[in-house]
Amino acid sequence: CVYVVLLLAVPPVMTVRAFFLERPTHPIEVRRAGVTEQERWIFEWIRENTVIEAVVMESNDYVWMPVYAHRRCFFPRESAISVFGFGGEKVERYRSVRKGMFSHDPVSPEDLAFLAAREFDIFIVVWKEDFEAMPYLRYKFDGAPGLVRKVHENPGATIYRAGGL
Q1: Is the Cβ–Cβ distance between 100 and 111 less than 8 Å?
Q2: Beta carbons within 8 Å of 125's beta carbon, 6+ residues apart
Q3: Which member of 72, 89, 119, 160 lies 3.0 to 4.6 Å from 124 by CB, making a disulfide possible if both were Cys?
Q4: How far is the C-alpha of 78 from the C-alpha of 86, rounded, in Å?
Q5: C-alpha to C-alpha distance for 18 and 56, rounded to whole angstroms
Q6: Partners of 157 in the beta sheet?
Q7: When comparing pLDDT for 79 and 117, which is higher?
């Protein structure tokens, strides 16, 4: 009788404990747990207005798109690359393109050609915190109609489509 009680009581108690007492500690986990309503609207827009094969480029390492919007990331976290054993020229190329998109420098013609040659739609999400940390992005993207086209905006983020299509 005691074994049955333990067998039936321990799993729910441990589950409740985990949900209510364990809190995220890593900065990325804390940020993921704090997704705002405006950010959720961005995920919903992407889910409803892009094809399933679309790829989303972001400047952060939160890797939200596969979880919340069900879309691939253009370039995942560095730790994911090393865990899965990716490497080589292709990884360096994608890393370089992403870095170039979010840098002060104009996007290179080579990076533009690389993006145009992809067989999938590429969307760039610039979060509110990105604009705060990198205010030049607003001028870089809004002032470059051949580079990107703004397709959606709310107070939490702006979504651009690469290639200005």
Answers
A1: yes
A2: 42, 46, 56, 57, 58, 65, 157, 158, 159, 160
A3: 160
A4: 10
A5: 32
A6: 127, 154
A7: 117
